TrEMBL record:
GO biological process: proteolysis
Pathways per UniProt: Protein modification; lipoprotein biosynthesis (signal peptide cleavage)
Residue ranges, annotated region (Disordered): 1-27
Transmembrane stretches, start-end: 40-61, 101-121, 133-151, 171-189
The organism's place on the tree of life at top rank: Bacteria
Signal sequence coordinates: none
Catalyzed reactions: Release of signal peptides from bacterial membrane prolipoproteins. Hydrolyzes -Xaa-Yaa-Zaa-|-(S,diacylglyceryl)Cys-, in which Xaa is hydrophobic (preferably Leu), and Yaa (Ala or Ser) and Zaa (Gly or Ala) have small, neutral side chains
Gene designation per UniProt: lspA
Name the UniProt record assigns to this protein: Lipoprotein signal peptidase
């Protein structure tokens, strides 16, 4: 009768140990330490929020407010205006071309950049500020990709000018996110070496 209380905790400890080992193996299979398995949630959430905000704003501007017909609406002139522009190039109309091949080249470049940034973040596993910046860039880039695929050009509608100076360029929510994300990645670049740090943390556990 006295042996049962002793055996029961031992069985529970064995079960807990097995669960920890299983979690560790799964984390290592994904090349992520156990405590960082869900770290990429920040990147995914920010990307999704930016993408949705960009697409919702463009839908309202083009299909509800019909700015593509009205062309321009003064909000706080001259500081802020809604001015419709279909951009076939990149920011500020660079590399603009009426040829359809350039449209798909820009789509391919944007998708390649998104994949590269995602793998970069996944491999280095930086903190949430860097993942926030990466999410802004990826979400904005994907928003403009959708425009190119369905409209053939990016819908730009925000314009900021100054007294006695009319800014000829327009931009959108995605452009703001891409710019902010790129600046963030420059100021807070993800650093490698996470794998070495993980090995150092795992060493005492293995020797034990």
């Amino acid at each position: 009768m006295a042996r049962d209380p002793i055996r029961k905790p031992a069985a529970e400890n064995a079960g807990q140990t097995a669960a920890v080992k299983t979690t560790t193996r799964r984390a290592r299979a994904k090349n992520l330490p156990p405590q960082q398995v869900n770290d990429l949630k920040v990147l995914g959430i920010v990307s999704a929020v930016v993408f949705l905000l960009d697409q919702i704003s463009k839908y309202l501007i083009v299909h509800v407010m019909r700015l593509d017909v009205l062309r321009e609406i003064d909000v706080l002139p001259p500081w802020l205006n809604l001015r419709m522009a279909w951009n076939q190039g990149v920011n500020f109309g660079l590399f603009s071309s009426s040829q359809d091949i350039m449209r798909w080249v820009l789509v391919g470049v944007a998708l390649a950049v998104c994949l590269w940034v995602w793998f970069w973040i996944r491999r280095t596993r930086p903190g949430w500020p860097t993942q926030l910046a990466a999410g802004l860039l990826i979400g904005g880039a994907l928003g403009n990709v959708i425009d190119r695929v369905f409209y053939g050009a990016v819908a730009d509608f925000l314009n900021m000018s100054l007294p006695n100076w009319r800014n000829p360029y327009s931009f959108n929510v995605a452009d703001i996110a891409i710019f902010a994300g790129a600046i963030g990645l420059i100021l807070m670049p993800p650093h490698g070496g996470g794998g070495d740090a993980d090995k150092t943390r795992d060493a005492p556990a293995k020797s034990g």
